[in-house]
Amino acid sequence: xxxxxxxxxxxxxxxxxxxxxxxxxxxxxxxxxxxxxxxxxxxxxxxxxxxxxxxxxxxxxxxxxxxxxxxxxxxxxxxxxxxxxxxxxxxxxxxxxxxxxxxxxxxxxxxxxxxxxxxxxxxxxxxxxxxxxxxxxxxxxxxxxxxxxxxxxxxxxxxxxxxxxxxxxxxxxxxxxxxxxxxxxxxxxxxxxxxxxxxxxxxxxxxxxxxxxxxxxxxxxxxxxxxxxxxxxxxxxxxxxxxxxxxxxxxxxxxxxxxxxxxxxxxxxxxxxxxxxxxxxxxxxxxxxxxxxxxxxxxxxxxxxxxxxxxxxxxxxxxxxxxxxxxxxxxxxxxxxxxxxxxxxxxxxxxxxxxxxxxxxxxxxxx
Length: 367
Ligand SMILES: [Zn+2]
Fold this sequence. Notes:
Layout (H helix, E strand, L loop, with lengths): L5 H20 L9 H4 L2 H4 L11 H12 L15 H12 L8 H9 L16 H14 L2 H4 L4 H10 L19 H13 L10 H7 L17 H13 L8 H9 L21 H4 L1 H9 L10 H10 L17 H15 L11 H10 L2
Bound molecules: zinc ion.
């Protein structure tokens, strides 16, 4: 008998659990659940929902609790505390909750993380990842006070300090840190929207293009495996610079359409990997970007199936998880809802992953 490797085994378990869950939703399954399914961890820990719909109010409650608990984040995400603001804040704004009531608290907190770029928490070093999540949080608030916290000159200085000394167009996540496509993406999109020195963009498109793999997706660095998160970062940066044609978009599209899993409806991040709700955004947004770049003129993903997968990844009391059997968290709630929103509406901006109305406000604010 053919021995299955861990990934294939896992994939089969996820497939059969989700198929069973869907049957129950659609009331196709009236008989007893088969024994092997009852022993399947992805099924057994699944909390059943009444129907397949978005639990908006439950998610608002869940995210509000997360957002107001900034101090607690230090226990589990010490070097990424601004993320603990951005994830629930972005989710709340997608759910059309009024986020203005959190403005003062968020500004006060992020002020403690500001140098020129932002740090992962008070008294830490500047780092591109918390700089990204801090800036996006301030953009979402979209008020003069929030945007007034941004020191464009100091930010520009920080960006120059993280240029990769060994590779033109590449950036380091922090001074002396690792280089990868995330860093290029963050610098590019912030330079464009904040109207910083365009020389910071020199060589970026060429560098990103050199990271496209034989499969068509983009790797974190050159010669590495195509991955949903890095592909999003690379392609979003190219679309932002209006240089989408620097990569082979036909190949990108072929890789991308094969990431939506037939049984689950959600996306995986890499070839032969298991489906995960956060790729609803990382992969899902690329479909939208292919339209924005003008390469295709229609949505190529199965929106209905994706939404159903996200429905199945909802915790009955709020929050979204990676896949049945996992616990909900702010990260998967943010990216599950972002993918959900992007799939069939124009509310979110696919490059920045914040509402389009906020992008407009920021663009007008910084002249
Ligand atoms: Zn995930």
